[in-house]
Design brief:
The protein is of the alpha+beta class and about 1150 residues long. The protein contains 47 helices and 15 strands. It starts with 9 loop residues before the first helix and ends in a 6-residue tail after the last helix. About 15% of the residues have low confidence.
């Protein structure tokens, strides 16, 4: 249990499992369930052991065996014990039948073949009279149908009957889940199930059942099948789900949001009606509820509420000022995962359906810029894409976007966060690109160029630096186009200064470690060099614009940049007569000869076949004219030329390794076999590969929802496909969820179980081995009582015969006395014979008496039960006991339990003045307080009896009754007593008499339960709650048997004395024993067994009573045993 190996104790566990004692057996099974594995060796020894426990008459033993089997079952155990388990489905106790049904599921997992054999019997249990058994069957079938529901379509009528008649909510939940898995296979069930499910949704107060009904209606296609009433049913579901969201229970909120997200797909407008309560869930403290509500918010967005929802979400990443309290804990607000999820949801909400919900794009640009500063996490890439995408697609927002990006470029504090982990410095690439692409909206071009060429730019990522370099030359080109109309000598000189400064500042990019930044910087620097050479030339007139400046803007702004549809390339129509697999122009023969002269490709056949692929047949292509005409000398010259070229080549690495020498092909280049390739076949194969790849890409693209932009450029004559039209027509709610593809319920054990086919009927050979039916404990008891009755009748008949024999033998000697007296010798002989006969008759008489006594003992059962019934009406309180007695005063006390409060004892005192001459002017009692007893003075019970603490004046021979009430504070135990003092004075005497009082309180006083218990209830109590009776004691008593009374009457009197003294009740009497039960006012229970044995050999004859008691509390049991041991039995 603590991680240590317990395999060494496996055999000992099996020994303990086989123990006859319940506590030992339970411990053994518990240890086995915790330590046994599927490969434990001793499991083969447990087969017969479990079979024996399953056949036990004690239900507790069967329950332990079933529970242990469910944990340690193996394929072998499942195969061997399955017939026994199936036969126990008809057990008399529902407790056992329920456990057997549940264990069978574990057996099916290990031994799938048993499912087909036992399914008819399992199906019969759906009509079991006990609802717990039916619920267990439903649970098992629900688990079986989770993977393969097709097998259980035949159960639909019975399940529907249970759905409409059962009131067990948990069973109804299982049935509804089961129908949810069956309706996709049988759509006709939907119309049948719709009325009862609708009724349950409208009437049931159980939230769990209500949720399951709503969830099944939403996910099972009931709303679509309902037709026109589907909208009304969906509205009812949303109204009921609102109660889940308003409930303070977090679990109900979560499942309500989960069901709302399912309903959002088909009825987004109905869900949007409850926007207020869903937005409240966004501010919930539970992160799981918050995320579920965020999923719903995504689907509720429209043009009217998008601004409100986005502002609500932004408060989660931008906490309020210190003066105002935040809605969330700081740990939640600054959680990077949560903040990233919120930002992704905001962008998803705004960009879904091609920005269909946004009316004010300037507001969206402001939101993106605000997130850039306050995100707290690195989401720069997605912000960059959004800023660029919106600026390209929406022309009206470009001017505002350029102004915002200009402010972003000018922010030096933001530039200093380049090295921070949570910085969104990548957004500067979008800012630079937008300012460069739409530089016509810039208000201050020089300051923009200055911000792009600041020295701190070198700390930015290389991706941002690349965009910076490209944007510099684009802005510079636009600036020159503006200067052309204003060109003059002064502007000429100023232009040269600015260009020189920019030329020099480009050096910081040329020294970058990134190759792309270096390349772009050198290109831009080269352009600046060309411009300076053409402008800063003394021969050039300063008043005329150089031609270089006039053509520079055309390099970047000749065409307008518009978005292109993702499928535009695939939609370009192929012109008629165009063969994309054919050569546009035949390759030049000179080019082929040049390649052959190099020698490295001279032997390749593809260059020979290229020029003649359209003219010659395959046979002519197989001829190699260049390889056949060459002789050995030419080949040797070519090899030598190659060796010399390699030796002079500084980039060729010569190898001296033997392994690398295998790569030297100089000696064998010409001996390589020539392979002829068919260009037509190659092109055909390539086209097939392209088609397959395009099909795969199309399948992949269907899974990814790519937006179709409103202003995308499409080729001419491009037609929309039917798939795209159908997707446009279907408008459904959007749910932002991240679903896991892993099934948490997946198990390798279910693979074999799911392959079982229950649709085909069982064959004649598919049967279980016949096993004997097991009798329940009640049936065993009934059979035993019948057997005892038959034996009693036989013994009574034998008793009568024995009595007749004894009477006949007693009459025989009297008849012999009338015969004449014989002679002396004959007398002696007769005396000897008669002495021998008398000894024999004495021995026979003794044995017959013993047999009669035993006969009396076996017949006691029914007689004792009747006799005890006559004497069972006892007084509800103990007899009065004498507490004090002297010449003047007599004090008697009667103890009773209070009728309204059983923890209070009423002490009824009787005080008598025994003096015939003098009165007692003053008499009173004082009681000591203790930890066990507390005096109760303010008792609401109205009584005419005086209080025991009052002063009494007693005349001669006067008697007074009073009462005192005390509450028991501690446990009922042995030695509990009330202590006090009695004070009185006698007339004519000045002495105050003081006497100590001690009133013992017997524990039997508290056994006040006088209702007899049924034997079946007593057996159920011991089987189900036997573990509570932890304490055990026993006592033996001897009962003298008088010769004149019958043994039966003596034992009845003894049993009556025991029950009267102890307060225990007789539950059941069987030959030789009686079961006892008692319950105290405090709820302590006592169960006992009384056995009696006869000792006929002793003088006087006695019967020994052995009383075994078990209790749920130790102190009461010890006190009861003490009082029983003090009983004195009399005849």
């Amino acid at each position: 249990m603590l991680g240590y190996d317990m395999s060494w104790a496996s055999f000992h566990m099996v020994e303990v499992m086989s123990s006859a004692k319940f506590l030992h057996k339970r411990t053994g099974y518990l240890a086995a369930t915790l330590s046994f594995q599927q490969d434990t060796d001793v499991l083969m020894l447990t087969t017969n052991l479990i079979k024996k426990d399953l056949a036990s008459p004690a239900p507790v033993d069967i329950g332990i065996a079933l529970n242990g089997l469910s944990h340690i079952v193996t394929p072998d155990l499942a195969r061997d014990l399955c017939p026994d388990l199936v036969s126990m489905l008809n057990h008399s106790r529902p407790y056992i039948r329920k456990k057997v049904v549940l264990v069978l599921y574990k057996v099916f997992l290990k031994y799938p073949e048993a499912l087909r054999l036992s399914f008819p019997r399992l199906k019969e249990k759906l009509e079991d009279p006990d609802p717990s058994v039916v619920s267990a069957v439903i649970s098992v079938v629900c688990e079986l149908a989770r993977k393969n529901p097709k097998n259980y379509l035949s159960l639909a009528p019975q399940l529907f009957k249970l759905l409409t008649t059962s009131s067990n909510n948990w069973m109804l939940i299982k049935i509804i889940k089961l129908f949810a898995s069956l309706t996709p296979l049988e759509p006709r069930l939907i119309k049948k199930l719709l009325p009862p499910l609708t009724s349950l949704i409208q009437t049931t107060p159980a939230m769990s059942l209500l949720y399951e009904c709503i969830y099944t209606v939403i996910t099972g296609g009931f709303l679509e099948a309902a037709g026109e009433s589907g909208n009304a049913l969906a509205a009812t579901c949303t109204n009921k789900l609102r109660k889940f969201l308003e409930d303070p229970d977090q679990n109900l909120k979560y499942v309500g949001l989960l069901a709302m997200s399912k309903l959002l797909v088909t009825h987004p407008k109905l869900v949007a009606e409850h926007k207020d309560i869903i937005l409240e869930c966004i501010d919930d403290e539970d992160i799981s509820i918050r995320l579920r509500s965020l999923d719903l918010v995504v689907g509720m967005v429209n043009r009217k509420n998008i601004v409100e929802i986005v502002k609500r979400l932004i408060t989660h990443i931008m906490p309020k000022s210190n003066n105002e309290s935040s809605l969330h804990d700081p740990s939640t607000i600054f959680d990077p995962v949560y903040r990233t999820d919120i930002i992704n949801r905001i962008i998803f909400i705004c960009s879904q359906n091609h920005y269909n919900h946004i009316n004010d794009f300037e507001w969206y640009i402001t939101v993106l810029v605000g997130i850039t500063y306050a995100a707290g996490v690195n989401v720069g890439d997605i912000l960059t894409n959004q800023l660029m995408d919106v600026s390209v697609r929406v022309k009206s927002v470009r001017e505002f976007s350029v102004s915002q990006m200009y402010n972003l470029l000018q922010d030096k504090q933001f530039l200093e966060t380049a090295k921070k982990r949570d910085s969104n410095i990548e957004v500067l690439s979008a800012a630079a690109w937008i300012c460069g692409e739409y530089c016509n909206y810039l208000q201050d071009i020089p300051s923009t160029l200055e911000s792009l060429l600041t020295p701190q730019v070198t700390k930015l990522p290389v991706k941002v630096q690349t965009i910076y370099v490209h944007s510099v030359i684009k802005i510079y080109a636009y600036w020159t186009s503006e200067l052309i109309s204003q060109w003059n000598p002064e502007l000429h000189r100023e232009f040269i200064k600015v260009t020189n400064v920019m030329y020099e500042k480009m050096d910081m990019f040329t020294h970058s470690t990134d190759l792309e930044v270096q390349e772009r910087a050198h290109d831009v620097k080269s352009l600046f060099k060309i411009i300076l050479d053409s402008v800063d030339n003394p021969t050039v007139d300063a008043t005329q614009v150089p031609l270089v400046l006039e053509g520079l803007p055309d390099l970047f702004f000749i065409y307008e940049l518009n978005p292109v549809a993702p499928k535009a390339q695939s939609k370009v129509p192929i012109p008629e007569g165009l063969d994309l697999d054919a050569w546009i122009n035949d390759p030049l023969p000179d080019l082929v000869q040049d390649f052959e002269s190099d020698g490295s490709v001279a032997d390749s056949p593809r260059y020979e076949n290229v020029s003649k692929s359209k003219k010659k047949s395959k046979k002519s292509k197989s001829k190699s004219k260049y390889s056949s005409d060459e002789d050995d000398e030419i080949k040797e010259q070519r090899r030598a030329a190659r060796r010399e070229a390699r030796q002079n080549d500084p980039y060729y690495i010569m190898s001296s390794d033997k392994k690398n020498q295998l790569l030297e092909f100089d000696d064998d280049v010409d001996s390589i076999p020539v392979v002829e390739l068919d260009i037509d076949e190659i092109n055909l194969h390539a086209s097939k590969l392209k088609k397959n790849a395009s099909k795969k890409s199309k399948r992949a693209k269907k899974e990814i929802k790519t937006p179709i932009y409103a202003e995308e450029e499409m080729p001419e004559n491009a037609a929309e496909s039917e798939d795209e039209k159908s997707t446009k027509d279907k408008k459904k709610g959007v749910v932002y969820t991240k679903k896991s593809t892993r099934d948490i319920f997946e198990s390798n054990e279910e693979s074999g179980l799911n392959s079982v086919d229950l649709s085909t009927p069982l064959g004649k050979d598919e049967t279980f081995q016949q096993v004997k039916a097991y009798l329940s404990p009640e049936e065993v008891r009934i059979n035993e009582e019948a057997r005892y009755r038959n034996e009693r009748k036989e013994l009574r008949a034998l008793q009568k015969k024995n009595k007749e024999l004894l009477e006949s033998k007693k009459k025989a000697p009297k008849e012999e006395t009338n015969v004449a007296e014989p002679s002396k010798s004959e007398k002696k002989k007769k005396k000897k014979k008669s002495s021998k006969k008398s000894n024999k008759t004495k021995e026979v008489a003794v044995t017959e008496e013993e047999e009669l006594a035993k006969a009396d003992f076996t017949v006691i059962a029914d007689d004792v039960r009747d006799a005890l019934a006559e004497k069972h009406e006892e007084s509800k309180h103990h007899k009065a006991i004498e507490i004090f007695n002297d010449n003047c005063v007599s004090l008697m006390c009667d103890l009773r339990l209070n009728e309204t409060n059983h923890s209070i004892i009423d002490f009824h005192f009787t005080i008598e003045n025994k003096d015939n001459e003098h009165m007692l002017p003053s008499l009173h009692m004082e009681f000591a307080q203790s930890f066990d007893l507390k005096s109760v003075e303010d008792n609401e019970e109205t009584t005419s009896i005086a209080s025991a603490t009052e002063n009494f004046e007693l005349q001669t021979n006067e008697r007074v009754e009073c009462v005192a009430q005390f509450e028991v504070l501690g446990n009922i135990r042995r030695g509990l007593c009330l202590r006090g003092d009695l004070f009185y004075d006698v007339e004519g005497s000045s002495i105050m008499n003081q006497n100590t009082l001690e009133i013992p309180i017997p524990v039997t006083l508290f056994l006040n339960d006088k209702q007899p218990m049924d034997p079946a209830e007593f057996a159920t109590l011991l089987s189900e709650h036997g573990d509570d009776f932890l304490y055990h004691e026993n006592v033996s008593l001897e009962v003298p048997l008088a010769s004149d009374d019958s043994i039966e009457q003596a034992l009845i009197n003894a049993l009556e004395t025991v029950t009267r003294t102890s307060g225990l009740l007789v539950v059941e009497v069987v030959p030789g024993a009686a079961s006892l039960y008692g319950k105290s006012a405090q709820g302590v229970q006592i169960a006992g067994l009384l056995k009696y044995t006869l000792n006929m050999d002793s003088e006087p004859k006695v019967a020994t009573l052995s009383i075994d008691l078990k209790s749920t509390e130790d102190d009461l049991l010890n006190g009861l045993i003490y009082e029983l041991s003090n009983i004195k039995m009399t005849n």
